[in-house]
Amino acid sequence: MTAEAAAGDSSEGVLLDEPTTADLRAKVTEAWREFAGALAGVLAGLPSGAQVDLTLDPTASGTGSAVYSVSIRVLDAGVVEALAVGNAGLPPEFRMDRATVADMVALGWSPPGVLPGSGDSFGLRSEQAKATPLAAAISRTLRDVYGAPHPAFLVYLAHDAEDEPLEVGPLATARQEPGLDGIGLGDLDDEQALAEAMGASAADDLVPLEERVRTVIATMSKTTIDQLQVDADGDIGIRAGSAMVFVRVRDNPPLVDVFSPILTEVEPTEQLYVKLSELTNRMPIGRLYCAQDTVWASIPVFGRNFQPTHLMLAVQVMTGLADELDDRLHGEFGGKRFFGEGDKPASPKNEGEHRTGMYL
């Protein structure tokens, strides 16, 4: 949308309300808290012999050949045993130093080989009755020691004593099936499947807008409404590579805002504003802007006469756009990406070094 169009309609100022109140660090912290709580609930109810394997997806996290994993197994009498990868299972360049090993021990892990049967892995033994502190220790291991930036980078597999798949409740934003990278963009044009999933609700004004939006996102993600990841603000979170996309439903006026914090802790400069203006003019829909020290991308979808295909297009564009732009803008202006915990301000690169994006 152009500035002229926004100025011509007094309602647009409300429609494009800046989501600057979103506390990104708080969202990540809350995501880990939700993951730990969900993991505790699963562990408390597992039958004897069941096992849950948690792995930091190397294809999404950039850890290359290093595979960080934790395996949790329920033994007899409610005993729970967890094994975490040690240096013997890691490439030389990813092995832990003494300080990191000390951090593992401080979290309750025994060094490799100390717990009977642990072999080259760190070992931890607890009880199902103490599932909450156990889940907290495992979550901190994955986050603070193994460096998982967000639970969405975790994949998990549950199976019984006979290695048969075991259905367990969702572990927050962690993914049950390996190889999935957020939303299935290849299926976004399957309007027939969407229509069948939504039934007549899309045309029924009696169905709340929020419910219709969640139906669309769940259908696109090939999951259920109950398994969508909704934070304390009511925003639906969708991981898109190193970026995070949020879908927020607003009531007055009815609006669905698809937005993403492209970069945080970036220095607002005239060059940045010029770049964002240029990119906005080249976007098929939506806009980019800088508020305080955060670069946002936003695509509003009108809630009145809500059209599911309009939301599908907005999500499709935003998930591809955010993952592309956070890398490009970070390389030129520094700052931090949502899933770039180690990001530091970077020196500007030559324009010729930028790769051409799918949408720009």
From TrEMBL:
Residues 209-340 form the TY-Chap central domain. This is YbjN domain-containing protein. Residues 30-154 form the TY-Chap N-terminal domain. It comes from the Bacteria. Residues 337-360 are annotated as: Disordered. InterPro entries: TY-Chap_M, TY-Chap_N.
